[in-house]
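F.,

This is the one I mentioned.
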């Protein structure tokens, strides 16, 4: 993906560029110039912090997925925030590549193999470096093979069919699926699967354009949504939001909560489900009833920065600048989010969650989430 140098003081809006292989709304959202300055300043401070915490081996926190999130954020920053040739980007990519395994996955010897592979794959795709082509191709195939389908003993009647888990014996969940589907969508140009491999790899059928991994993902997504008209399971309620995996929610029972609802909306769009589909409409309806940039509605401060990252990406590709809530109030979510992130940034340039659940006390991880959220909210990702 290309990089833009942005003269922040000269623009009143930014144009979001979506992956060319995916049908997305393309438009120029208006963001007030003061918010552009806020975002620019906050990103600069965040990048300075990340520069100070880089490990001697080129990593952040000595962990592939955290390093890959940081690298992705750095690559997407405008050139006047991070120079494209900055050595820390190359060294970060080198650390990611050092964790490539013989099976094509990119992970350390821990249970989170699929999760690490998906996030590391995204960073290498973002680098647009042709030297990583074969690594990307093999990592895509590895990731596709992690989907819960017939190849690994699941049948379409199984509630978890079509999902992705962390790897190993972990059951599929929506958090892992949303990362996997985004990464597969953003890396479609690297598909290099022969017709003979279709049944074993589950890849794209070049004759019809079908991508079975999207179709299977939609089955899982539908079973994660609280929508009685489409979800066949009795545990589903009817508010349109999403749970963590079928029959289980981090908000208790099968209750909907925000980070998973945005993950569901985002995944439907990446899997090419139309915006007019009742499942997409129901998810967006839940969002309009539960809008917030101060908490993760349904679970409060748990996973707050993961929520910001997922929310901003989902609304970005959904294609809207404003959320109109049930009481008729119209919110510019981009400006609200930029303002909130600038307000809660630490003096050292980092971000961190006082609630340490899901690693959110790790400043490297959370600062990467925050920078990516700022980019989603008001900054061009490239051309």
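My design for it:
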């Amino acid at each position: 993906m290309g990089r833009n140098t942005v003269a922040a003081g000269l623009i009143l809006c930014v144009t979001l560029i979506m992956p060319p292989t995916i049908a997305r709304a393309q438009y120029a959202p208006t963001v007030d110039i003061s918010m552009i300055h806020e975002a620019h300043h906050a990103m600069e401070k965040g990048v300075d912090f990340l520069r100070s915490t880089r490990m001697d081996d080129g990593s952040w926190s000595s962990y592939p997925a955290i390093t890959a999130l940081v690298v992705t954020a750095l690559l997407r920053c405008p050139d006047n925030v991070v120079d494209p040739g900055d050595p820390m980007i190359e060294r970060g990519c080198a650390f990611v590549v050092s964790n490539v395994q013989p099976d094509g996955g990119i992970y350390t010897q821990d249970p989170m193999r699929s999760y690490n592979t998906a996030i590391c794959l995204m960073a290498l795709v973002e680098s647009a470096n042709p030297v990583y082509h074969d690594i990307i191709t093999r990592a895509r195939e590895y990731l596709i093979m992690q989907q819960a389908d017939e190849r690994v003993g699941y049948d379409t009647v199984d509630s978890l069919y079509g999902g992705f888990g962390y790897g190993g014996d972990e059951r599929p969940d929506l958090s892992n699926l949303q990362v996997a589907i985004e990464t597969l969508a953003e890396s479609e140009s690297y598909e290099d699967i022969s017709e003979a491999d279709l049944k074993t790899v589950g890849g794209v059928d070049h004759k019809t354009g079908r991508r079975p991994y999207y179709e299977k993902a939609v089955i899982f997504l539908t079973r994660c949504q609280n929508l009685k008209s489409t979800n066949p399971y009795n545990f589903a309620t009817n508010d349109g939001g999403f749970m963590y995996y079928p029959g289980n929610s981090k908000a208790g029972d099968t209750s909907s909560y925000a980070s998973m609802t945005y993950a569901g909306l985002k995944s439907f769009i990446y899997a090419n489900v139309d915006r007019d589909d009742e499942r997409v409409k129901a998810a967006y309806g839940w969002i309009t009833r539960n809008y917030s940039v101060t908490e993760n509605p349904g679970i409060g401060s748990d996973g707050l920065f993961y929520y910001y990252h997922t929310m901003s990406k989902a609304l970005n590709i959904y294609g809207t600048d404003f959320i109109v809530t049930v009481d008729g109030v119209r919110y510019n979510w981009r400006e609200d989010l930029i303002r909130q992130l600038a307000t809660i940034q630490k003096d050292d340039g980092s971000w961190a969650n006082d609630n340490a659940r899901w690693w959110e006390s790790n400043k490297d991880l959370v600062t990467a989430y925050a920078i990516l959220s700022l980019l989603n909210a008001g900054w061009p990702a490239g051309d």
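Confidence is low (pLDDT under 50) at residues 1-27.

Talk soon.
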